[in-house]
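Most newcomers find our protein records easier to grasp once they have seen one. A learned vocabulary of local backbone shapes supplies the integers on the structure line. Here is such a record, shown just as it appears in the course material:
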Amino acid sequence: MDLTFKKLRDTSISRSSRWHGCEGWNLSDWGIAMVGEAGETCNAIKKLNREREGMVGNSESIKQLQDNLGEEIADTLIYLDLLAEYAGIDLEKVVTDKFNKVSVKLGFPERLGNEMENLTTDYLKQIWDFMGSDDEKYFGTNYMFKNISFTVEDGGHTVNNLFMDDVYFELLRRGEKEYVAI
């Protein structure tokens, strides 16, 4: 199954308008609904912790408890997206931006939403060359990438906040290991 943020939002909005009659709901109503589901998620975790500790009192099997945990996490995500919708927030965009911001801050190569996939390899090589000499790209025994951030355009495709490590890892992903060898 290929679930996207857009499909979740569109379908959830349609269903919630039938279920909740959302016209009277405000930001705090959506927030309280989401937190209520998060609380149910924590309750499922509490029961699993009791099982782990060998405490008595659970009437469900571990499998039932794990299934319930999954359902409560799903409910929380659904209400979180409805909360974001009400607040006018594109959840896919803010999740992608925040994830990538933390990856850049920590120097990790993992990124969501590869904006560079539309840029040609030749153009990425030009960017790599523009970013400085090999001596500027290398520090001691570790790669030390400059925190250069700028916007590039290639054939109508725009990439914002491009960082040297983004270009490096994208060229590696495309099999250009020798080109970016320092």
Q: What stands out?
A: Confidence is low (pLDDT under 50) at residues 138-148. The radius of gyration is 23 Å.
